[in-house]
Amino acid sequence: MSDMPFTATSFDKLCGEKKLMATRCKDCGKVELPPRPICTGCNSQNIEWTELNGKGKIVSFTVIGVGPWTMISEGYDRNNPYCSGIVEVEEGPRISTQIMGVDVANPENIKVGTPVTADFVERGSFSLVPEVANVRKTYLVFKAS
Amino acid sequence: MSKRKLGRGVAVAGYGMSKFGVLPGLDCRDMFVDAFKDLVNSVDKGLDPKDVEANYVGCCGAWNWEAQAGIAKWCTDWANLVPIPSTTIDNACASASVAIRNGIIGIASGLYDVVLAGGVEKMTTLPTEGTTLVLATGADKTWECYAGYTFPGLYATMATAHMNEYGTTPEDLMAVAIKNHNNGAINPVAQMPNTITQIMEQRQARAREKGKPVPGWVTEMDFLHDDQYNPMVAWPLRLFDCCPITDGAACVLLVAEDIAKNFTDTPIYVTGTGQASGRALHSRDTLTSIPASQIAAKQAYEMAGVGPADIKIAEVHDCFTIAEVMAISDLGFFKPGKDAATAAAEGKTARDGIKPINTSGGLKCKGHPVGASGAGMIGEVFHQMRGEAGARQVPNMDVNLAMTHNVGAHGTTVVVQIYERR
Questions:
Q1: What is the percent of chain B where pLDDT is above 90?
Q2: β-pairing, A82-89 with A55-64?
Q3: Distance, in angstroms, between A95 CA and closest chain B CA?
Q4: B229 vs chain A: nearest CA distance in angstroms?
Q5: Distance from CA of A112 to the nearest CA of B (A)
Q6: Distances from the Cα of B371 to the Cα of B263, B402, B418, angstroms
Q7: How many angstroms away from the CA of B20 is the closest CA of chain A?
Q8: What secondary structure, in 3-state letters, does B181-204 show?
Q9: CA B350, CA B356: separation in Å to the nearest integer?
Q10: B248 and B120 in contact (C-beta within 8 Å)?
């Protein structure tokens, strides 16, 4: 793993192994999710992968009825909406994610601060080109715990 | 960093636009030509097209919507301006403002005296799902679209945070839509030239004609709370919290200050310009304001040597109702939170309010052809500052200082500009 570049492609591969990995600056210790090749805290290029414990909380969210094709093809629509939001993980950083296990029929019942845990789902890819859109990969999601 | 000034003064001497709306049969270049012809006719003392030295065109997604790259070249060609340099600029919904800012920089540098700058977007070629996907690419494809985010979804997430932090209500946001519809209703170039009340009456009349049950709304708020007629798009944002999908083009004529009077007796001068970038939503410290707006505004205010209280009117980026609420606090017109959230409901941002905002009807009513919208905003301040805004002219106010605020995506680019009429 130490030789994997700090890219989304590496992150996807690690998700495929059901591992939630972030990057960590070896100089100042800042943990970054999404992973980054240059530290946003101190500009260091001295970066390593670090595994997260998968626990976090909802910072904000929405419930979407009209989604992009990646979500429509998973069966989501006005009658079956999904929750997307921002989760802050215990190690500090925040990431955009689909949030499962919340009351999407009554979004006013979903609370900022709700604890969530990492999980992984299979979905198609984000593209206008059908051949690319049909390529399935493993996505990080969070589940209300 | 020391305060920056333009190397020499720049003025806006003309403005033109195509129709804004659903325009079947018109490609980007066709709409751009319509805008250019309108611009030529707008120049009081005339414009010889041979004097135009460069063309900067903002366009967000012609690659996707029209399968055309490098659209500026074809706009230049069809406007018969070949061989002047053509530059296509994509900064999502701020594309036109970035194009215009680069035109300003081109003149301020001394390289050019007369520049055409604006933008164009053709958005209605794909089904709504396709346009939803293309618009979402204005956000971070890799890390935000990843989460199933749509464009309304990102602004909805900011609205949820605003409600959670400040107690902002859906009704506060609806009041922004009502105010902008009141302005758009008297804007002859608006895509949606109707008040909410007029839209309600149309829907009721249609139901009556078809022999269907006639909805019994009494107030505009009744209509805006109707799940059938104003459905949820991304909770807590409903359809009428969102701007329409629009085809259109708009452009401005930028000229060096020392020759501005050759074109018109009433040019408006660009006295401040600022531009900043922002990260993806999850990588920001705040979800209830747009940091790049604050930074771009600070640059523009410092360059112009004025403050928020000096600005008479502003066209701000209201792609969603929550965006206007954040804009008017990020620009320093209202305090963050309740003060900004209730400004529309309390009439403070109406045409006769203390700080008229989006007198054009905003993106909400005028329309939002994303790559062209920044130029459209300048059109409104150009007309207001020259006393040419007709029924929309703000009353009891000499509009000698105005601002445009154009956000790319959900705050990953912001351009703020200040204009003065002398």
A1: 95
A2: antiparallel
A3: 5
A4: 14
A5: 8
A6: 27, 22, 20
A7: 24
A8: HHHHCCCCCCCCCCCHHHHHHHHH
A9: 5
A10: yes
Query: Which residues make beta-bridge pairs with A84?
Result: A62, A98
Give B148's contacts in chain A (Cβ within 8 Å).
Answer: 64, 67-68, 70-71, 76, 82, 84, 98
Q: Which residue has the tokens 């209300």?
A: A144
B60 an active-site residue?
no
Between helix B71-78 and helix B28-42 the angle, nearest 10°, is 50
Among B142, B210, B301, B69, residue whose Cα is nearest residue A12: B142
Give the separation between CA B194 and CA B202, rounded to whole angstroms.
10
Confidence band of B353 (pLDDT split at 50, 70, 90): very high
How far is the C-alpha of B360 from the C-alpha of B186, rounded, in Å? Answer: 8
Angle at B27 between CA B23 and CA B32, to 5 degrees: 95
Average pLDDT over residues A81-106: 98
Measure the CA angle with vertex B407, ends A58 and B419; round to 5°: 145
Active-site residue, selected from the candidate residues B75, B93, B319, B365: B93
Cross-strand bridge partners of residue B353: none
User: A142 CB near a chain B CB, below 8 Å?
Assistant: no
- Rounded distance between C-alpha atoms, residue B237 and residue B17, angstroms: 30
DSSP element (H, E) containing B242: none
Determine the residue of chain A that is closest to B132 in CA distance.
Answer: A68
Residue type, B174: M
Q: What is the pLDDT of residues B3-37, one digit of tens each?
A: 789 999 999 999 999 999 999 999 999 999 999 99
Taking CB atoms and an 8 Å cutoff, what residues of chain A touch B150?
Answer: 64, 66-68
DSSP H helical ranges for B196-267: 196-209, 220-224
With a threshold of 0.95, tell me whether the complex ipTM lies above it.
yes
Q: Is B93 a catalytic site residue?
A: yes
Looking at B317, B368, B405, B410, which residue is catalytic? B368
φ and ψ at residue A123, rounded to 5 degrees: -150, 165
How does B105-135 read in b/e, with b if 16+ C-beta sit within 10 Å?
bbbbeeebbbbbbbbbbbbbbbeeeebbbbb
Q: Tell which B residues from 240 to 279 touch A, by Cβ distance under 8 Å.
A: none
Please answer yes or no on whether B148 and A71 come within 8 Å at the CB atom: yes
CA A57 to chain centroid: 13
Is the pLDDT reported for residue B200 higher than 90?
A: yes
> What HEC string does B153-174 produce?
HHHHHHHHHHHHHHCCCHHHHH
H or E element that contains B30? helix B28-42
Which pLDDT band, with edges at 50, 70 and 90, does B373 fall under?
very high
Q: How many C-alpha atoms does A52 have within 13 Å on its Cβ side?
A: 30
Cα-based distances in Å from B107 to B43, B52, B110, B139 = 18, 12, 5, 31
